[in-house]
C-alpha cells in the first residue's frame, strides 16, 4: 500500500456544502483501498478537466517510475489547452467500508479552476488523482502539547491530525477563516484541544494571532503549520527563533502562494522551503 506515485481516476458520488465557502466532495474508485492509508495529512493532487472534457486527459504511468518524474514530463507535454489543471488537496476522510474518500474544496470564487469545479461538482463527475504516496509521508513530531495552525485550506489536514493525536498529547488550534460562518466543528482528540478562530473580516490574520498568543502557547513543544506559503514561513521563523522550538519539532507546508497558482514556476522562496524540508528530513 502507498508504494510509488499512483495515478488513477476518481468519480464523484456526493457533494455537501459544509460551510458557505467549503464544498465537501465524496469520491470513489476501485483503486482507493490500495492507495489510501490510515494516517493523517494524506496529500495528493487532483487533476481537473478543461472545458469540453468529460474527464481529464492523463498520460499513462509506468511501474518503474516510482517518483513520477517521467509521468510528470509526459503530463507537461500535453498541449496546454488540453492539459488538466492540477491542484493539491488533503484527504479529509476515507470510509473503507463504503470505499468513499471525502475532499474539501475551498470556494474562493470563479477565478480559480478548483473553486469553479468544486462549486459545480455533481455525482458522476470524474477527476484524475496523483498520489497519495507513503514516499512523501512525514511523521508527526512527538509532543505533550501541539500547536496546529493554518488557514481554511489546512483545516482538512488539521482535522486528520487531531484524529491521530495520542491520548497523552493535547492541542491548541489557531485557524484563520473568512468570517464566523466559516467556522466548523473539529475533532476532539483524547488529550483535548482548544480552538481559536481568527476572522479576516475582523482584520485578523493567522501570523498576528499566533505571534500575539503569549501564554496561550505555554507548554507547546511541537507544531504543525500549513496554509499560504509566506504565512507558513513567517510562523516557522517565529516558532523556532522566538518560541525556541527545535526545527525538527515544527512540521510545515506551504499549500498555496498569494498571487500565484500551482501552474506557476516555483519562486526562490518555494525552493528555499523545499530545501529546508529536505534538510529537516535528513
From TrEMBL:
Enumerate the residue ranges of region (Disordered).
263-282
UniProt cross-references to InterPro entries, sorted A to Z:
FAD-bd_FR_type, FNR_nucleotide-bd, Riboflavin_synthase-like_b-brl, SIP_FAD-bd, SIP_fam, SIP_rossman_dom
The UniProt record lists the FAD-binding FR-type domain at 5-139
Any idea what this protein is called?
Answer: Siderophore-interacting protein
**Organism of origin:** Streptomyces californicus
Amino acid at each position: 500500500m502507498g508504494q510509488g506515485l499512483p495515478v488513477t481516476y476518481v468519480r464523484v458520488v456526493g457533494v455537501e456544502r459544509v460551510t458557505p465557502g467549503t464544498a465537501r466532495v465524496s469520491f470513489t474508485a476501485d483503486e482507493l483501498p490500495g492507495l489510501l492509508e490510515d494516517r493523517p495529512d494524506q496529500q495528493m493532487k487532483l487533476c481537473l478537466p478543461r472545458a469540453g472534457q468529460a474527464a481529464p486527459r492523463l498520460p499513462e504511468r509506468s511501474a518503474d517510475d516510482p517518483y513520477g518524474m517521467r509521468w510528470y514530463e509526459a503530463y507537461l507535454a500535453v498541449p496546454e489547452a488540453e492539459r488538466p489543471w492540477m491542484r493539491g488537496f488533503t484527504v479529509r476522510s476515507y470510509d473503507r467500508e463504503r470505499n468513499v474518500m471525502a475532499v474539501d474544496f475551498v470556494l474562493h470564487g470563479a477565478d480559480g479552476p478548483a473553486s469553479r469545479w468544486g462549486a459545480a461538482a455533481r455525482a458522476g463527475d470524474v477527476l484524475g488523482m496523483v498520489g497519495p504516496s507513503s514516499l512523501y509521508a512525514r511523521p508527526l513530531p512527538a509532543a505533550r502539547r501541539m500547536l496546529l495552525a493554518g488557514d481554511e485550506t489546512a483545516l482538512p489536514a488539521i482535522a486528520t491530525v487531531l484524529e491521530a493525536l495520542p491520548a497523552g498529547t493535547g492541542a491548541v488550534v489557531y485557524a484563520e477563516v473568512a468570517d464566523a460562518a466559516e467556522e466548523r466543528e473539529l475533532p476532539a482528540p483524547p488529550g483535548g484541544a482548544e480552538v481559536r478562530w481568527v476572522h479576516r473580516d475582523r482584520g485578523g490574520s493567522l501570523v498576528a494571532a499566533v505571534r500575539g498568543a503569549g501564554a496561550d502557547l505555554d507548554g507547546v513543544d511541537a507544531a504543525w503549520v500549513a496554509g499560504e506559503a509566506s504565512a507558513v514561513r513567517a510562523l516557522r521563523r517565529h516558532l523556532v527563533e522566538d518560541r525556541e522550538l527545535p526545527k525538527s519539532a515544527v512540521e510545515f507546508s506551504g499549500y498555496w502562494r498569494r498571487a500565484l497558482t500551482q501552474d506557476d514556476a516555483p519562486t526562490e522562496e518555494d525552493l528555499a522551503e523545499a530545501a529546508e524540508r529536505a534538510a529537516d528530513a535528513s
